[in-house]
Amino acid sequence: GDSVTQMEGPVTLSEEAFLTINCTYTATGYPSLFWYVQYPGEGLQLLLKATKADDKGSNKGFEATYRKETTSFHLEKGSVQVSDSAVYFCALSDDYQGAQKLVFGQGTRLTINP
Amino acid sequence: NAGVTQTPKFQVLKTGQSMTLQCAQDMNHEYMSWYRQDPGMGLRLIHYSVGAGITDQGEVPNGYNVSRSTTEDFPLRLLSAAPSQTSVYFCATKQDSFSYEQYFGPGTRLTVT
To answer: Across all residues in chain B, what is the average pLDDT?
Structure first.
């Protein structure tokens, strides 16, 4: 079945550092790709999405480009802040029994130190 | 507009006890689902519902029951809790089966001893 593999965590960076969290996927079709973020004590929130190859999703300074040739959707941010500390999940959409469901990676915990 | 609410926030059960995790939404979404989150495993789909009166199994349904009598509510029942069900449970909704964006509740942390 379809699957998502994320960079192992945890990741610790200093404020204003450049962030990359790697995500690769395997899928039989042409899924849409997502990054979700989970702040401490909260549920997941959609951060950004891309629905077809070469699309770039962006939000709150984060970006990710759907690369079909490398089956990747890496998350990047040029200058991280303490408030970006959270767990980040890469996910793809999968047609499951006639409905779209999400397949999640294992999550990457990010800590930003001031 | 409360979005997706879940109760309780925390629960401790003994092996063999039963309980119901509540999920309610006020967005008039057709699709509702339950996930469990375990360390290093991401989120896994337990059960889902594409509308009132319709439910189906996800990837890990064993040990859980659901029903959907109204659009707003989607309770998850553990009939006989086991330590393997210790996890964080999230309810999520979306407009319909084919929408992409899901809205998650704050979660219920369940410990089974």
So the answer is: 93
